[in-house]
Amino acid sequence: MAVHVHIHTTHRQFTNGLESVAVEGSTVGACLSHLIEQFPGMEKALFAKKDKLLNNVEVYLNHASAYPDELLKAVKDGDDIHLVVMLTGG
Amino acid sequence: MLTPNEQERYDRQILIREIGQEGQEKLKRSRVIIAGAGGLGSPIALYLTAVGIGMIRVVDHDRVALSNLNRQVLHSEEDVGRKKVDSARTKLRNLNSTVEIQAIGETISEGNVSVLVGDCDAIVDAMDNLPTRYVLNRCAIQKNVPFFHGAVNGFEGRAMTVLPGETACLRCMYRGLVPQEKFPVIGVAPAVIGSIQATEVIKYLVGIGKLLTNRLLVYDGLRMTFSEFRLNKNPKCDHCGSLAKKE
Predict the structure, then answer these.
(1) At the N or C end, where does chain A have fewer CB atoms within 10 A?
(2) What does the pLDDT look like over B14-58, one tens digit per residue?
(3) Nearest CB to A65: which of B40, B151, B231?
(4) What is the pLDDT of residues B84-96, one digit of tens each?
(5) Contacts of residue B40 in chain A, CB cutoff 8 Å?
């Protein structure tokens, strides 16, 4: 079992086109660290600096908003993390 | 009361059990502001005009450019250089002359948003930038008027409906400014999202269905999927929560 991180379309260039990546960790933050270990290009796509997500990145845990303190949220095997990029166009 | 002409025009939607005669009359009595006459504003304005909203106020400061025409279907080649609201008024009046169309060529700001919204029953977000969306979101909360959000990029889009004081608002997940960039977009994306926003407005005004509240709908046209995410009202939100400025 693992946690599944679902990658936003614009970020798939950093995951070899993968839509979903299996990771391990007990928090969202730990899972994203494991994601970045596998795909280092994701770091700049997600983080402004250490432990600070970019303002346009939204995190959903099991289809519910993980805001605020997203990185501290506990996860368990089988959970789904969706990384979604905020859209601004019209 | 509907006129005989209106009875005939709206016959097919009056046949919808949830709308009926009463619902059509509610639509006729309604006033809606559409903030933007571009990619999202085009389908929103067209469908809300077609459905028979009593008054539609379209606000946009921009002029039609050739590069708009891949998606902004309110405008045509002959409109290039013309104010978008003038072009919109012409098209919408041709579509449905029984709807009052108010075309306002202004830039929406903190200073004028309250007057622009006036006594409208619904605020529809058809903007192309986040700062103005937040101006509209705050105004919606202060006036206790529902806010219908939509945004697009490329083949993607998202939508949510805000009932002030009851459901999560656009600002409830705010973390800071997002850089404004020229965004890629293909016309079918705002067509989908704008149609969803218009559907939400119609449902709200008639008082039917289940609104897209406390839910974010994310559309991916390339994979042809719709995903739904649950949202929570943030008690500390600076627009609708404890940190909101009292006016």
Answers:
(1) N
(2) 999 999 999 999 999 999 999 999 999 999 999 999 999 999 999
(3) B231
(4) 999 999 999 999 9
(5) 90
Query: With contacts defined as CB-CB under 8 Å, which chain B residues touch A85?
Result: 153
Structure tokens at A70: 């997203």
Give pLDDT tens digits for B171-224.
999 989 898 889 999 999 999 999 999 999 999 999 999 999 999 999 999 999
> Mind telling me how many Å the CA of A64 is from chain B's nearest CA?
4
Phi, psi torsion values for B55, nearest 5 degrees: -135, 135
B231 CA to chain A: closest CA distance, Å? Answer: 5
SS3 B48: helix
Q: How far is CA B122 from the centre of its chain?
A: 8
Chain B residues in contact with A58 by the CB 8 A cut-off are 173
Cα within 13 Å of Cα(B220), Cβ side = 14
For residue A85, what are its two tokens? 């990029």
Spatial CB neighbours of B157, under 8 Å, sequence gap ≥ 6:
A87, B150, B151, B189, B190, B192, B193, B218, B219, B221
Q: Do A87 and B153 touch (CB under 8 A)?
A: yes
Residue B226 scores a pLDDT above 80: yes
Q: Do A63 and B234 touch (CB under 8 A)?
A: no
Structure tokens at A79: 């959970």
State residue B242's pLDDT score. Answer: 85
Query: Interface pTM (ipTM) of the complex?
Result: 0.95
Q: Does B4 touch chain A (CB under 8 A)?
A: no
